[in-house]
Amino acid sequence: MPMDVDVEGVGANSPRKLGVEEEMAARTDVCELATPAEAAGFLRTTVAKLANDRYMGVGPGYVKYGRSVLYPWKCLRAFVDEHTVRGL
């Protein structure tokens, strides 16, 4: 289920399509916080897995505002960097 987004002002006044990862990266310029659904899409997991990780005290850093849970994009990127396995 590819998600493409039109981007205005790219090249010579011609819109182009962005993939899911590029769309997520583009959204970080607009909003510094991701919803659980956006974070799950970025990490290619489920919202339920993120909720379980919060309960267990593992997973990416998050912000709790009232009953809402939001993930700073910088925490999501740091989580990916910290859990990247590098070969010898």
Task: Name some characteristics of this structure.
single chain; 88 residues; alpha+beta; three-stranded antiparallel β-sheet; two-stranded antiparallel ribbon; 4 helices; 18% strand; disordered N terminus
Give a description of the structure.
- The protein has helices spanning 20-30, 36-43, 47-56, 73-82; strands spanning 5-7, 16-18, 33-34, 63-65, 68-72.
- The strands form two sheets. It has a three-stranded antiparallel sheet. It has a two-stranded antiparallel ribbon with strand order 1-2.
- A hairpin with a 2-residue loop joins β4 (63-65) and β5.
- The chain is built from four helices and five strands.
- It has 88 residues and is an alpha+beta fold.
What's a concise summary of this model?
Helices cover 44% and strands 18% of the residues.
Topology:
Layout: E1 5-7, E2 16-18, H1 20-30, E3 33-34, H2 36-43, H3 47-56, E4 63-65, E5 68-72, H4 73-82
Antiparallel strand pairs: 1-2, 3-5, 4-5
Outline type: globular
Q: Reading side by side through the largest sheet, how are the strands ordered?
A: 3-5-4
Gap between N and C termini? 35 Å
Structural class: alpha+beta
**Average predicted local confidence, pLDDT:** 81
Strand content: 15-25%
Work out the number of β strands. Answer: 5
Task: Write down the secondary-structure element order.
Answer: EEHEHHEEH
Largest sheet: 3 strands, antiparallel
